[in-house]
Amino acid sequence: MPDTEGHPARAEMDLLTVLSALADPLRYQVVTALLREPAGAERHCSSFGLPISKSTRAHHFRILREAGLIRQVDRGNSRKARLRREDIESRFPGLLDLIAQNAPADDSSAPSRANH
Amino acid sequence: MPDTEGHPARAEMDLLTVLSALADPLRYQVVTALLREPAGAERHCSSFGLPISKSTRAHHFRILREAGLIRQVDRGNSRKARLRREDIESRFPGLLDLIAQNAPADDSSAPSRANH
DNA sequence: AGGGAGGTACGATGCAAGTCGAACCTTGTT
DNA sequence: AACAAGGTTCGACTTGCATCGTACCTCCCT
Questions:
Q1: What is the mean pLDDT of each successive set of 10 residues along chain B, which is 116 residues long?
Q2: For residue B79, what is the domain's CATH number?
Q3: Which residues of B touch A95 (CB under 8 A)?
Q4: In the structure, how far is the CA atom of residue A38 from the C1' atom of nucleotide D6, in angstroms?
Q5: Range of the domain at A57
Q6: CA pseudo-torsion sign B12, B67, A88, A22
């Protein structure tokens, strides 16, 4: 079962849930942005430049979290998101490559450097 | 651009559209059912045992068709659906393997033999 | 020619998902 | 202690999607 913060274990990940999570353009954009970062990189939820309100952003990150795509960790003041690369690759081999190869040419979700 | 029947060319396939198409349980079930068939197999749209009406079924097959996942060909009396394996594998390598490995244990969508 | 089988198109309906603002919590800063 | 920053939760609204019935089309068979 998911932990107290709603992260499913690797074995609990469901492809249909993952696909539904990825089927939203905003969430897909977040995943591809994380995929462009070096493995293990952490980003603020607010650093993706999503054109939505705070509450809607929390909603989308919740979907991603509960699908098992990202892990959100408390970092004192704020909370950071990290792509669960190993879990995803282990449970759904090839999925991340697939996403990476079809990432939008997008650059609105700036790299972590813009995080000053 | 898509042909007169709404089939997109291989290069036009969009991953986001494909993921949205697959994110529905019924449509996912159709794809996995086709995946269990030998390559190139054709099935009646009505042979999948979907618990929905005729018009809803047409709707779902339209989504699958316009996403590029299936090709629908007129066969005189009726119309048959075929999985576009080569196009999918070429455009989104690994996607079909991913789906096949996560197919539901389902058996309601009987094999083509049930087509008597 | 008529009827049945298989599919599509259209309009209407109901429910799920995305969206927002407001209130609240926690952490760190002043 | 007060406040700002970053997130979450809640309820309300709106849009989109799945669903259906009806009507219509095209083939095939009788």
A1: 82 97 97 95 93 96 97 87 97 97 68 39
A2: 1.10.10.10
A3: 94, 98
A4: 24
A5: 10-101
A6: positive
